[in-house]
Amino acid sequence: MTFPGPRLAAASALVPMLLLATVAQAHTGEGINSGFASGFWHPILGWDHVVAMVAVGLWGAFLGAPAIWILPVVFPLVMAFGGALGVIGVPLPAVETGIALSGVVLGLLIAFAVRAPIWVAAVIVGLFAIFHGHAHGQELPEAFSAYGYAVGFVVGTGLLHLVGIGFGFLTRSEAGKVAVRGAGGVIAAVGAAFLFGLA
C-alpha cells in the first residue's frame, strides 16, 4: 500500500492543536452562534466521542486500502442517520454504553492488530456510529436548525477521522506499528473509563 509523504501525516497531526486553540471559547458557548458551530464542536469536546472517531481513522489506516477511506466515510454517513433518529425522538437503548463500548472495541481491534474483512469492519464502525449520531441528535440546541447542526457534527467527525488517519501513517515502519497499537490500547482504556463511570 502506498502512503502519502510525512508532510501529510504531520499536517494531520496538527489538526488537534488548531482545534484546541479555540476550545476554551467553545466550552463557555462564546462564539457558538449557529447550528453548524454547535454541531461541529459537539464531537470534538467530548472525549468519549473523540477517542472512537480517531480510532476509526487509525484502524482504517492500519487495515490499509480501501478501509482507510471507506471506514471514515461509513461512520459519518451512518452517524447522520443515527442523528436523525435522535432529533425526531426515536428511542435507542443504552446510548452512552454504546458510545463507551465503541472506544473499548475499536481500541482493542487496533491494539491487537485485528485485520477484519472490509465488510465486517464497516458493520462494526456503522453500528457504533448509530450510537454517536443518536447522542448528537438528542442534544440538538432548540435555537438552531437540525440541518446546520448535522452538517457541523459530520464535519467535526471527519476531522477527527483525519487525525486518526494521519497518525495511522506511522504504520509504514515497525516502530510506528507498535506506536499505533499502543495508541489503540490507550483508546480502549479511555473507553473503559467511560464505560465504568471513571471519567
Description:
With 199 residues, the chain is mainly alpha-helical. It has one domain. Helix content is 76%, strand content 0%. Helix 1 packs across helix 8, helix 4 runs parallel beside helix 6 and helix 6 packs antiparallel against helix 7. The longest helix is centred in the last third of the chain and has 23 residues. It is globular, with a radius of gyration of 16 Å. The N terminus is likely disordered.
Beta-strand content = under 5%
Q: What is the distance, rounded to the nearest whole angstrom, between the alpha carbons of the first and last residues?
A: 38 Å
Give Rg in angstroms.
16 Å
Overall 3D form:
globular
Q: Structural class, judged by helices and strands?
A: mainly alpha
Mean pLDDT: 81
| Element pattern in H and E | HHHHHHHHH
**Sheet having the most strands:** none
Total domain units: 1
Q: Count up the helices.
A: 9
Helix fraction, binned, reads over 70%
Write a brief caption for the model.
This is Urease accessory protein. Residues 1-26 form the signal peptide. The protein is 76% helix and 0% strand.
List keywords for this structure.
199 residues; disordered N terminus; mainly alpha
